[in-house]
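Predict structure. Input: Transposase, 253 residues.
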Amino acid sequence: MCLISDRHGGLIKAVREGPDFVSPHGVHRYCLRHVCSNFNSTIKNVVLKDLCWQAGSEYQSRKFNRIMDEIKKQDVKAFAYLDAINKEKWTASHDGGWRCGILTTNMSECINGVLKGARRLPVSALVEITLERTVHYFHVRAIKGQKMLQNNQLWTDFACKMFISWQQKAVEHTVTKYSHAQQSASVVTRRQVGNYWDDPNFQLVHDPTIRTVTRPGRNQTTRIHNEMDWRQTRARQEAQQQQGDSSVQENVP
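Output follows.
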């Protein structure tokens, strides 16, 4: 199990003192977005904050080291701040594959937003019905799995349906094998026969009032915004302009 959270002291202490939550049974990782937010609160530089995100989201060590060198070149204190954090906790390049590509806690935040309407419901009833539905979910699928094994079915019903559909389409393809060792081949698909609707014998009239039903733009959020939601476009544009001016000066003979 991989637990991704912010660096709250209570969470870190609970994970550290948990006797069963140790590798390979469980690992603790930090949310990269919260790491960048705390980093920006201390350093107060949006450009370095972007570099922090790039460093944490890189999957190759050489690219991570290159970005960290750039951070060190711009601000030694910023580099020391990130270097003091265990790289396994916040970087994808040193994670070891535990995160499975998930860098932030956005999934849990989405669930929290969905459950806003259930906050006033009784907790005991919610826990009970959640447990019952979870047990029912696994019980029904365990029976289905046993039937599939008894029928010597290697794949699920959904996978078999997709394989059959692809097999029917592949009948019309022409395959020329080039190399069995390299698994290379040429596939020629059949030309579309043009199975489309005929032109209607009436005039199509567009109704411009259809799109006025929905309001333009994003829906207004109800959660409390913090530093991670503030737009800092101007600071990024100024940094890009400074980089452009410096590159022009370097190219001037």
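Residues 113 and 221 are 10 Å apart (CA to CA).
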